[in-house]
Amino acid sequence: MEKVALLKCTDYDVNNIEKKLREGFELLGGTSFLRTLIPENSKVLLKPNFLSIVEKGSPVITHYALFEAVVRIIKEYSNNIIFGDSPGSGDTRKAAEESGLMEVAKRYGVRFVDFNDEVHVELKNPLMYKFWNIAKEPYDADVVITLPKLKTHAMMYYTGAVKNQFGCIPGSQKAAWHTKLPDAVNFSKMLLDLNSVVKTSFAILDGIIAMEGNGPRNGTPKKMDTIIMGKCLTAVDSTAVRLIGYDDVLAIPILKAAYDTKWGTVIPEEIEILGEKIEDMKCKDFKLSRSAKVINFISPSLNNFVASLTAPNPVLIEEKCIGCKKCGEVCPEKSKVISFVKHNNKVIPKWKYSNCIRCFCCQELCPRGAIVTKNKPLSRMLGLK
């Protein structure tokens, strides 16, 4: 039985967060648990979520106060703490500075690392991929503690503890993975392999202010008052998706992949939730990015065919578009999918949906939230909305 600490934390006061995190660690086993998690003289990497360069305190990224509270606790067990990421767009150092995490790190002697240097490694017994090019710093760390935000995600429905390590793929190589793996379940298996490569040790999910709707960048802040902690990443994610309204955890691609491959614990009955009761913490009006309703046929190929017919499309809100062409830059398929046309005295994107792989990088990284997902008529007819 995997253990997950579910904590109620109503604000970003660093002292309050620290108190709650200590309560969580105590529930999981206290000092002995932490000494096992962080052996003496360990090199500890804290992996926040820097999706892009955004302002301090934004719900897009890991909050600087939660980061500081984590650092305070980890410093009692190691003096060798580093932090870093490889965001979907923009310079990592600038993202760290704008987020407020760099200032916190300097005060506590935590070293910033970018993920530019990479190593070629081999994974034994992979789910999908044996050979990897990944960032050197997370691979070399003794302990990797991931600090994701609780957010909606157009491709993966939800993003949290497992997906946060996609930032361990250096820079532009992320686009290649989207091209290679347009199917969400196979993409999820890749993410599970990636977490096996970097040996992610522990997750602290920041859901004090989560993101609903058009996530993971352009959604709406949602007060959830939640922190979720645990060694099992899939157990943390399984708990999180139940809080926001996904009662069938196997409808979430990452959790379905983990269950099918026995990578990690997913089923609620196999997870012991410590602290708050999940029924008391559920949000009844959380706006999901995508429905998790699925239609299953005996034939996997038929399932994939129906999924391709019902997957939503990226759609432009023209009045929000500033013609920056960022969507075309981040699209893994580039001009095969997105071209630009003049309309109402400005240049706007136009999609060739027959070539679109539905990775939703355009929607995810649009700086103005001008791209949303829209279900097709067949999806609405089948109730997949």
TrEMBL record:
Residues 312-343, 347-376 form the 4Fe-4S ferredoxin-type domain. It comes from the Bacteria. It comes from Clostridium pasteurianum BC1. Gene3D superfamilies: 3.30.70.20. Ferredoxins are iron-sulfur proteins that transfer electrons in a wide variety of metabolic reactions. The keyword Ligase does not apply. Keywords: 4Fe-4S, Iron, Iron-sulfur, Metal-binding. This is Ferredoxin. GO terms for molecular function: 4 iron, 4 sulfur cluster binding; metal ion binding.
